[in-house]
């Protein structure tokens, strides 16, 4: 079972009226690996994410998630919240979508909604304050604190998420996704807007998520230094189709990628790709 | 330096006078056009159905003059306070100390409320008013779950109030069931209606939701009005049983509570009992809401208000979350409705108009969405203020409407503009309302 | 069949009036994104202004009915437009960038103000006027003595609606003001950067919406022969329902929705029960929104994430 990829996307197509944002895209994400999805602006990367996480219903194609126990989920047929709840796919957004009026801690508590809901006997037991719920809540707070520590925000736990610095918000969003205890973590441009130091810290965080926790990661990223450093496998898209895939080295040396990724200006393209090494 | 700045302000002051006058003159001109026909001329249907009219130029002149003067005053005030306007009226330190006082205000208010029947025992009018205020506090707290916490705009809340009131009235008059049996039933029925309303509107957002809830409220009212066999139509339901003290009637009979306790009967007993009944119901609402906020469901409501898409990405079933918000809010409305019916002894569709929904919504928004204390204060000010104008029956809604506009301009985010976190590691810090979202639904 | 045809005519006339009001809702919603709750009351004020100016003109000794009607129309449009402008200025402009519920409550407050203002100013009793436009045509003489009639009044309501709609469509699609309005609808900040006077454009939107509502008010006065201070509420809700039904933000949608509501209401009264006509209109609104959450002609809103 473990030989199977955690996610396999098969001939995925997404059309918006006349626009074909994704066409016949097939790729797989390996278990406990970081798979990067790259491509120029408007290539259709976010659309792929939205199809995987159920925010868009794909026009065609299949998306399969293979669980550790051999179960398989057909993501194209599940509702968005079921994908997170049952198929255990968590995601972040290109434009950060925290709950800005809630504290960092609360954000992470909301992420454990389904666990806590069960523990609270769907509110009824929680309302009368049964001890099992109180224990579950303590565990949830402990998990949240643990994540806050990992992302270095423990001292900001009681601050409103909207008051955090941009880079902190990005990390908090990742922590929030991780608090759902996902099998697959999808990150949409987590390094966007981060400075070099923050990017490095992010790389470390992602590697620890993969290494220590064994969570598989699917990553969209424009920052090549991050992509080249941490990815195990890279899929390159342009205009909705896959134009190349392979290891960072293979992709970096692929002339098709260099040409397509940054238009026709090969020199500039090469320079950007080199930036990653 | 100081001299210079005073000089410039002096200069701008004097330069401003022609400007102010010009502005006031323009306002007066606009007022003249607006009011010349509507106020300058009065129409009335004569006895034979013929329309007659007469002029009221004096009224017209005085109202235009009033606009002229008022405009000057407003303009002067604006210059005096500065461009930011109303915000400065309550300076930041005052606001901070207010929020500090808020911590003691709640308990103090509660103690005072508990003592109201003792202090005002002989003042029936005040007791009645207090009961009315508490009814709106309860309605406000109930709607707060939907609007303040879940961020779903409900313009038809009065429908659930009506469902509760009619449930109790009909069950009690037709089957003779007691208040204490009917109360939970009324709440449950209202909750079911809440979920039924919630179901179709789940996919709607923002103003679509607003109009559908409004339509729903109107549908309920119209059905009550027209289903004569069941509801008595415009005549309403009368002879609704008064509540008993857990089975012991509060009347002048030999089995009455007064007789049993061996004290002299007084009609005030019932009023006092009603007072504590609604207080208990309101406090129950408050207690449940506060608890719910700290449970996953309450956090999910608030998260829904903040960002629905993110909620779904976290595996929260937004459909059931919204439904529970609607049903919970409706349930409290139903309780309040049952209380209203037993207190009045008579209900008719007239008590359940859109104005009522708007009033409750205004209380929630003025209170500062999501703040329990704010809602209570807002109910007190609104209903109390409303009462002040009881004598001027016709002007009452006019003043109420103006107050709503002015209050929104003055404090769009309500009296209490802070959100208290539901859980904390080291210290609970109030979250400024600028960060808190208002929801899309 | 004759009965049906007659109801069709009645429904279309009523629908035209709703459509005229609905345009005001839709335009304001399109530009400022708020429900102008006071719009129904603007319609009511329009009816009153028409009534009073009619009385004045008659007492001035004018006798030519077409001239009187034209003058009444102009006065009603002008004065009511000023009401629309004032309402925006006082109650909405200070809240333009405030949070979403504030302008809505301010609008509800304004609606109360206008309703009760006219109650205080003109009394609570219904104000009747004798039929001004009389006569009509019998289109078809039925077998059982039932005739399908088209009154001159009905012809006038529908033709005024059509003419105004045509003028209005021209205004929005061909003039500078219309272009500014569409620009503000898309993006106010951008429009302002490109030199569009946003405040003025929004004011003009309210002015035009109020003018159209006043025409509806006048038509209502002539058609039903009466006005009262409370008529704005129900008519307003129904017209808003019409705007939502047609797809809020869409002008043809508003008219289509108005006609739909008018027809539903008329046919329901004719074939089922008068008492439940409003229930029918609202229920259909809810049903339509369940299946078409953005109305009949509204563009589906894709949630970009
Ligand atoms: N909801 C939608 N409706 C219409 N078109 C859409 C929608 N979502 C995406 N598109 C289109 O699909 C194409 C791909 O967009 P997408 O956001 O997936 O690109 P991307 O690769 O994530 O780009 P970026 O690097 O800028 O984030 C674009 O042309 C976009 O306009
Ligand atoms: Mg993207």
Q: Briefly, what is this?
A:
The complex is a heterotrimer of chains A (277), B (441) and C (305). Chain B is mostly helical.
Tell me what you see in this structure.
- The complex is a heterotrimer of chains A (277), B (441) and C (305).
- Chain A is built from twelve helices and ten strands.
- Chain A has 277 residues and is of the alpha/beta class.
- Chain A has a domain at 96-169.
- Chain B folds into two domains: 2-83, no CATH class; 100-410, no CATH class.
- Chain B is built from 16 helices and six strands.
- Chain B is globular, with a radius of gyration of 25 Å.
- The mean pLDDT of chain C is 87.
- Chain C has one domain (2-230).
- In chain C, 50% of the residues are buried.
- Chain C has a two-stranded antiparallel ribbon with strand order 1-4.
- Chain C is mainly alpha-helical and 305 residues long.
- Chains B and C meet through helix 1, strand 1, helix 7, helix 14 and helix 16 of B and helix 2, helix 3, helix 4, strand 1 and helix 9 of C.
- Adenosine-5'-triphosphate binds at residues 16, 19, 21, 39, 41-47, 94 of chain A.
- Adenosine-5'-triphosphate is lined by residues 16, 19, 21, 39, 41-47, 94 of chain A.
Strand content of chain A: 15-25%
Structural class of chain A: alpha/beta
Structural class, judged by helices and strands of chain B? mainly alpha
Bound molecules: adenosine-5'-triphosphate, magnesium ion
Return the average pLDDT of chain B rounded to an integer.
82
Q: What is the succession of H and E elements of chain A?
A: EEEHEEHEHHHHHEHEHEEHHH
> What overall form of chain B do the CA principal axes indicate?
globular
Question: Multimeric state of these chains?
Answer: heterotrimer
Global outline of chain A: globular
Please tally the β strands of chain B and state the result. 6
Q: What does the main sheet of chain B amount to?
A: 2 strands, antiparallel
Q: Please report the total strand number of chain A as a whole number.
A: 10
Write the element-wise H/E pattern of chain B from the N-terminal end onward: HEEHHHHHHHEHHHHHEHHHEE
| Percentage of residues in helical conformation of chain A | 40-55%
Order of strands, widest sheet of chain A: 6-7-8-3-9-10
Low-confidence stretches of chain A: none
User: Please, how many helices of chain A?
Assistant: 12
List unreliable stretches of 5+ residues of chain B: 1-11
Main β-sheet description of chain A: 6 strands, mixed
């Amino acid at each position: 079972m473990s030989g199977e990829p955690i996610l396999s996307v098969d001939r995925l197509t997404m059309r918006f009226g006349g626009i074909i944002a994704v066409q016949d895209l097939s790729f797989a994400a390996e278990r406990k690996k970081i798979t990067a999805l790259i491509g120029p602006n408007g290539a259709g990367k976010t659309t792929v994410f939205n199809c995987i996480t159920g925010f868009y219903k794909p026009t065609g194609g299949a998306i399969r998630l293979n669980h550790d126990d051999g179960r398989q989920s057909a993501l194209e047929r599940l509702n968005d919240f079921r994908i997170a709840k049952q198929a255990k796919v968590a995601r972040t957004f290109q434009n950060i979508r925290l709950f800005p009026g809630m504290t960092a801690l609360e954000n992470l508590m909301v992420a454990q909604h389904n666990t806590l809901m069960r523990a609270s006997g769907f509110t009824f037991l929680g309302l009368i304050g049964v001890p099992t719920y109180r224990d579950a809540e303590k565990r949830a707070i402990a998990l949240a604190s643990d994540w806050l520590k990992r992302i270095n925000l423990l001292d900001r736990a009681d601050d409103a998420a909207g008051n955090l610095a941009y880079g902190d918000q990005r990390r908090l969003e990742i922590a929030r996704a991780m608090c759902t205890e996902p099998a697959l973590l999808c990150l949409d441009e987590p390094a966007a807007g981060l400075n070099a130091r923050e990017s490095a810290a992010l790389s470390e965080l992602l590697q620890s998520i993969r290494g220590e926790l064994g969570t598989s990661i699917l990553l969209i990223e424009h920052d090549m230094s991050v992509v080249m450093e941490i990815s195990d496998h890279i899929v390159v898209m342009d205009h909705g189709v896959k134009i190349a895939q392979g290891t960072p080295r293979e992709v970096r040396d692929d002339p098709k990628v260099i040409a397509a990724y940054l238009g026709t200006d090969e020199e500039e393209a090469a320079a950007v790709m080199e930036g990653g090494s | 330096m100081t001299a210079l700045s005073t000089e410039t302000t002096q200069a701008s002051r004097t330069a401003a006078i022609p400007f102010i006058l010009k502005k006031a003159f323009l306002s007066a001109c606009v007022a003249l056009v607006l009011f010349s026909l509507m106020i300058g001329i009065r129409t009335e249907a004569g006895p034979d159905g013929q329309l007659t009219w007469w002029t009221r130029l004096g009224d017209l002149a005085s109202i235009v003059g009033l606009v002229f003067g008022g405009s000057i005053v407003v303009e002067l005030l604006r210059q005096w306070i500065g461009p930011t306007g109303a915000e400065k009226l309550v300076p930041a330190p005052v606001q901070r100390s207010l929020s500090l006082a808020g911590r003691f205000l709640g308990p103090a208010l509660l103690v005072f409320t508990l003592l109201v029947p003792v202090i005002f025992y002989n003042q029936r009018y005040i007791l009645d008013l207090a009961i009315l205020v508490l009814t709106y506090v309860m309605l406000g707290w109930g709607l707060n779950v939907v609007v303040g916490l879940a961020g779903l705009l409900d313009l038809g809340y009065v429908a659930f109030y009506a469902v509760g009131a009619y449930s109790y009235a009909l069950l009690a008059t037709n089957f003779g069931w007691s208040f204490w049996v009917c109360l939970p039933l009324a709440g449950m029925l209202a909750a079911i209606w809440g979920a039924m309303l919630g179901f179709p509107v789940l996919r709607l957002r923002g103003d679509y939701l607003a109009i559908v809830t409004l339509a729903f409220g109107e549908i309920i009212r119209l059905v009550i009005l027209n289903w004569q066999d069941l509801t008595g139509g415009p005549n309403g339901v009368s002879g609704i049983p008064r509540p008993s003290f857990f089975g012991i009637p509060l009347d002048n009979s030999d089995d009455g509570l007064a007789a049993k306790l061996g004290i002299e009967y007084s009609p005030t007993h019932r009023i006092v009992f009603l007072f504590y009944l609604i207080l208990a119901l309101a406090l129950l609402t408050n207690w449940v809401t506060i608890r719910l906020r700290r449970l996953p469901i309450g956090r999910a409501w608030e998260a829904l208000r903040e960002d629905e898409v993110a909620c779904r990405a976290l595996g929260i079933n937004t459909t059931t979350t919204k439904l529970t918000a609607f049903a919970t809010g409706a349930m409290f409305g139903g309780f309040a409705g049952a209380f209203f019916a037993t207190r009045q002894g008579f209900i008719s569709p007239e008590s359940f108009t859109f104005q009522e929904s708007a009033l409750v919504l205004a209380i929630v928004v003025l209170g500062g969405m999501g703040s329990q204390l704010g809602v209570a204060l807002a109910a007190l000010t609104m209903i109390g203020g409303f009462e002040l104008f009881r004598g001027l029956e016709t002007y009452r809604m006019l003043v109420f409407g103006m107050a709503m506009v002015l209050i929104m301009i003055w404090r769009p985010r309500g009296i209490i503009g802070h959100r208290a976190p539901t859980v904390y590691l080291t210290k609970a810090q109030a979250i400024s309302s600028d960060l808190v979202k208002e929801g899309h639904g | 069949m004759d009965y049906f045809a007659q109801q069709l005519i009645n429904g279309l006339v009523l629908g035209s009036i709703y459509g005229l009001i609905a345009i005001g809702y839709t335009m304001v919603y399109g530009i400022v994104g708020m429900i102008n709750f006071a719009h129904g009351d603007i319609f009511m004020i329009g009816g009153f202004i028409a009534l009073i100016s009619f009385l004045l003109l008659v007492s001035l000794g004018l006798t030519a009915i077409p001239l009187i009607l034209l003058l009444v129309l102009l006065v009603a449009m002008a004065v009511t437009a000023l009401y629309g402008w004032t309402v925006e200025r006082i109650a909405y402009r200070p809240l333009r960038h405030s949070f979403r519920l504030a302008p809505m409550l301010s609008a509800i407050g304004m609606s109360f103000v206008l309703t009760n203002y006219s109650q205080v100013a003109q009394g609570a009793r219904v104000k009747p006027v004798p039929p001004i436009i009389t006569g009509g045509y019998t289109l078809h003489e039925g077998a059982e003595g039932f005739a399908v009639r088209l009154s001159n009044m009905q012809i006038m309501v529908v033709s005024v609606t059509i003419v105004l709609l045509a003028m209005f469509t021209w205004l929005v699609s061909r003039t500078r003001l219309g272009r500014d309005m569409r620009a503000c609808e898309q993006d106010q900040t951008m429009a302002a950067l490109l030199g569009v006077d946003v405040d003025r454009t929004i004011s003009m939107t309210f002015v035009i919406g109020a003018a159209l509502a006043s025409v509806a008010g006048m038509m209502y006065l002539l058609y039903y022969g009466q006005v009262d201070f409370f008529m704005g509420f129900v008519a307003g809700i129904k017209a808003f329902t019409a705007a939502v039904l047609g797809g809020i933000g869409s002008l043809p949608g508003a008219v289509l929705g108005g006609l739909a509501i008018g027809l539903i209401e008329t046919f329901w009264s004719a074939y089922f029960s008068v008492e439940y006509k409003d229930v029918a209109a609202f229920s259909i609104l809810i049903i339509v929104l369940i299946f078409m959450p953005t109305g009949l002609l509204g563009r589906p809103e894709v949630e970009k994430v």
